[in-house]
């Protein structure tokens, strides 16, 4: 088996188990059995289960963050060219549109569950591993939102963004729950992805501006 194929198989298996069982309940032996490799392969390529979790997170978040930051820079450039402050809606579109469209894809299914576990279980060590991949991105978005909402205290803007992220997480679960038939019907939606994205953006924009 080629090196990259081995690493991909390990990452796929780890992502699946971390989603199904959580990080702490998953053993390296379970991962290696599903990946068709031995424990030595995991240690060779990743060093530890903790480093493997880092790799799982980076594989999904780093490419997505590149897109989200590029979208934010485009919003800032367009506003500057027009001599205006970026609108709240444009900022939220830049954040939510690529996020929701990416994570509802089948290959993101397990990763979406991992992120949900991290933010609901609040396991300290794992949360600390995801912070460097999320907080710099959110800080960049907050800087622009502070400018777009100058009459609100910064603490209030940050709180509203956190609530908006919570709404986005629920929207992700609503779409994925319907796709996989894994959630209560009252909490899932059969609406097309683009309708969910537009509705969510309307919802969080009003919340950011008018709460």
UniProtKB/TrEMBL annotation:
Gene3D superfamilies on file: Tetracycline Repressor, domain 2 (1.10.357.10)
Molecular function as annotated in GO: DNA-binding transcription factor activity; transcription cis-regulatory region binding
DNA-binding region: 27-46
Organism domain of life: Bacteria
HTH tetR-type domain location: 4-64
Entry keywords, A to Z: DNA-binding
SUPFAM superfamilies named among the record's database cross-references: Homeodomain-like (SSF46689), Tetracyclin repressor-like, C-terminal domain (SSF48498)
Pfam families linked to this entry: TetR_C_30, TetR_N
Name of this chain's protein: Transcriptional regulator, TetR family
Lineage: Bacteria, Pseudomonadati, Thermodesulfobacteriota, Desulfobacteria, Desulfobacterales
């Amino acid at each position: 088996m080629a090196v990259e194929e081995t690493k991909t198989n390990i990452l796929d298996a780890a992502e699946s188990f971390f989603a199904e069982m959580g990080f702490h309940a998953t053993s390296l032996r379970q991962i290696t059995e599903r990946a068709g490799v031995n424990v030595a392969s995991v240690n060779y390529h990743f060093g530890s289960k903790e480093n493997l979790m880092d790799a799982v997170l980076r594989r999904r978040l780093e490419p997505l963050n590149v897109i989200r930051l590029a979208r934010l820079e485009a919003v800032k450039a367009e506003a500057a060219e027009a001599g205006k402050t970026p609108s709240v809606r444009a900022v939220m579109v830049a954040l939510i549109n690529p996020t929701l469209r990416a994570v509802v894809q089948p290959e993101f299914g397990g990763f979406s569950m991992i992120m949900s576990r991290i933010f609901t279980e609040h396991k300290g060590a794992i949360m600390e591993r995801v912070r460097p991949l999320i907080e710099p991105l959110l800080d960049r978005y907050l800087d622009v939102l502070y400018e777009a909402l100058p009459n609100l205290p910064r603490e209030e803007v940050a709180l509203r963004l956190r609530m908006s992220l919570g709404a986005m997480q629920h929207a992700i679960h609503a779409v994925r729950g319907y796709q996989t038939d894994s959630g209560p019907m009252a909490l899932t939606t059969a609406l097309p992805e683009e309708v969910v994205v537009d509705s969510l953006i309307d919802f969080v924009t009003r919340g950011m501006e008018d709460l």
